[in-house]
Amino acid sequence: MKEAVIKTENLTKRFGDFIATNAITLEVYTGEIFGFLGANGAGKTTAMRMLCGLSIPSSGNATIAGYDVYRETERIKKNIGYMSQKFSLYEDLTVLENIRFFGGIYGLSDDEIARKSDALITQLGLQNEAKKLVSGLPLGWKQKLSFSVAVLHQPKIVFLDEPTGGVDPVTRRQFWNLIYDAAEKGVTVFVTTHYMDEAEYCNRVSIMVDGKIEALDTPHNLKKKFNAFSMDEVFYQLARGAKRAE
Q: What is the reported pTM?
């Protein structure tokens, strides 16, 4: 049996009369790469903030890595990694200083930090850049470093918010190789993206329209269900159907 490390039931967030996320129900499993798709304003970021313990839901239930989103937000934060859409490392620190800093934040011992720093720099091929300021790295390298730091403490889940925005296709593919490696080690990857071709890389995807999950399945099954050749077509059909229903 697969273990569900993310469980939500009718998870809802209201801002006054506006419903940003409406009764979200889903399960995500250990080692799964789960795509969380939707247009800008669909409610993806609001939902992710609730799952990360950064925003309290208005109603509904959810557990993340076994911890309740209402009562155990600090425990949730210790068991997840997070990479925001905007670059989240310190540009005025070197590559090595960033790795050591975040290792300390995650509570790793000095020995663990030293060992993992060396391994990470070698893995990313940054031996010549280890003592250079992060501000001097190309965007693609910054993104890969940011992801690697987010999983430095071996979290159960890593949340990625539009992680490949603005990078070239080759770097995007290299970044996804890092995601595959993490998933093979048992890390659950919860990723939002506006690149519909990247949905094909996920084990399963959900598609949000106006705060609601309108579809959830494997890319293969969704394309079959909607008689579509690509996830772009699936997304277009769902968005068009939502507009007709208004």
A: 0.89
